[in-house]
Amino acid sequence: MLTDRENAIPWDECFMRIAHTIAERSKDPSTQAGAVITDQHNVVLGLGYNGFPRGIESGILPWDRDGGFTETKYAYVCHAEENAVYNSSQKVSGAKIYCTLFPCNECTKTLLQNGVVEIIYESDKYHDTDACIASRRMLDAAGIKCRQYISDWMK
Question: How confident is the model over 80-104, as pLDDT tens digits?
Answer without folding.
Answer: 999 999 999 899 999 999 999 999 9
